[in-house]
């Protein structure tokens, strides 16, 4: 380590150059029919008996493993914390989790009431100040009757409400309303059609339709 960073890098480069040359000779020996030393040869170990670390075929020996930027290459990222299963997560969910027991301690409710009174007082004070300002400018108008029914609003609902001579409200419809007799006749016709469809045969129905056509009904 005392040789300095540049000298250590140079020496490490020379060792890797010799290793590449060694690999070429091993490949040539295999081509000539000799043993495959790349497969059966012993692994390169450091003085601690651990395999020499490397990156993309480049090995780092001795103090070269502690050079800036080299140590980070071989530091393993910490494993992520194990994820809890759904059953484990459900163990912590109860009524308190959803806020149903927030008022049990008797602290939250008085605070909410106090805050509500404060907000209401501020709103009333703001309204009074705005009203006084309008009065000072002479812009005060009659307060609008929120319960009054306007003509356009009544039209949208299909009619108008007007007060008669006796003070009673009358409703004027804008659509034709059938009388009681017309409703009864429509119900009778509907009942006849249901009975015909239920008991009459197809041939009888066809004859009935043909008779109606001939009679012009």
Automatic annotation (TrEMBL):
Cited InterPro entries: Helix_hairpin_bin_sf (IPR029012), Isy1 (IPR009360), Isy1_sf (IPR037200)
Key words of the record: Nucleus
Annotated Pfam families: Isy1
Example GO BP: generation of catalytic spliceosome for second transesterification step
Disordered: annotated segments: 133-177
GO CC terms: nucleus
Biased composition (Basic and acidic residues): 147-168
Subcellular location, record wording: Nucleus
Family from the record: Belongs to the ISY1 family.
UniProt protein name: Pre-mRNA-splicing factor ISY1
Organism of derivation: Acanthisitta chloris (rifleman)
């Amino acid at each position: 380590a005392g040789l300095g960073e540049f000298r250590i890098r140079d020496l490490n480069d020379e060792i890797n150059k010799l290793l590449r040359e060694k690999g070429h000779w091993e490949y040539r020996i295999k081509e000539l029919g000799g043993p495959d030393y790349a497969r059966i040869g012993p692994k390169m170990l450091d003085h601690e008996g651990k395999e020499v670390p490397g990156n993309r075929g480049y090995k780092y020996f001795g103090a070269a493993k502690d050079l800036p930027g080299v140590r980070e290459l071989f530091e393993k990222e910490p494993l992520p914390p194990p994820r809890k299963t759904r059953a484990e997560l459900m163990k912590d969910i109860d009524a308190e989790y959803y806020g149903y027991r927030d008022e049990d301690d008797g602290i939250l409710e008085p605070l909410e009431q106090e805050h509500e009174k404060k907000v209401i007082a501020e709103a009333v004070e703001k309204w009074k100040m705005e009203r006084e300002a309008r009065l000072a400018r002479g812009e005060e108008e009659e307060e609008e009757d929120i319960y009054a029914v306007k003509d356009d609003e009544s039209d949208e609902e299909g009619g108008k409400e007007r007060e008669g001579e006796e003070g009673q409200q009358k409703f004027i419809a804008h659509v034709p309303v059938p009388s009681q007799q017309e409703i009864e006749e429509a119900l009778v016709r509907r009942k006849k059609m249901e009975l015909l469809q239920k008991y009459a045969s197809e041939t009888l129905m066809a004859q009935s339709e043909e008779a109606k056509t001939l009679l012009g009904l």
